[in-house]
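I am writing to request your help with a piece of structural work I have in hand. Thank you for your consideration; the sequence and its tokens are set out here:
=====
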Amino acid sequence: MSELRFVHLGFGGDAVEYREAWQKQREVHAARFADEIPDTCLLLEHLPVYTAGRRTEDSERPLDGTPVVDVDRGGKITWHGPGQLVGYPILQLPRPVDVVAHVRRLEEALIRTATDFGVRTTRVEGRSGVWVLGDPVEERPALGGLSLDFDPRVNDTEFDPRLNGPEYAPSNAGQRREDRKLAQIGIRVAKGVTMHGFSMNVNPDNTWFDKIVPCGIRDAGVTSLSYELGHDLTVAEVLPVVERHLRNVLEQAEPKPREVATGTAAEARVETGVKATEAKTGAEAVEPARA
């Protein structure tokens, strides 16, 4: 992959309003598609905002009617705001694009970043992003005097943490010793060029996530580097480490076109695979025909 250029859009007091950054993405995407600029990664903090990918269900949105920005990426609903490092890598990929491989590369860079700060993270099968694993279910503490046999998180597929008190809130997943997401990934690939990207929780107020069902996942929660370390860490400290790992992973990668099957049965498998890919990776691939 070509040399990666980083552009800082704004942090702290200069945090960027979401729609402003979204428009900037479109401009950079168009320039990258035209080969006017190299691969570019926009890095920033956002002002507080909820954004919903194409797969977001109404039941996952804030119950109090808090505004949500609907966006053209894959995945579901999440929150962006102060204390969260956001990255939008806008890269040219070979056609037909391998969306999963791109997501895995972003995950790898963020896993390496967390490792450098002493936080052990991993991937979770069927769930995009970077995760801190919790204890096995039988070893987790019971809440409200309930044994795990009656815990609604275990047996109720319609369990909604927003309706069951703060002890069940996504932001308290660490206290419950459950799986918790440290970094979110949601992307879009159009004309062979990527958009959107990742957000890594450094030291945000994670209670913002309690108004929604983050990423549509009801049986896990969210965390941050600061929470896992037990001391405060700033976006400014994490920024150069993320840049280094993104550069190492993305510049050294040799992305290859996704293999394309042929025939009626193969077409059915490909169509099914596209749907499964979006469900598992929070990604949407859009490949319009060339003019």
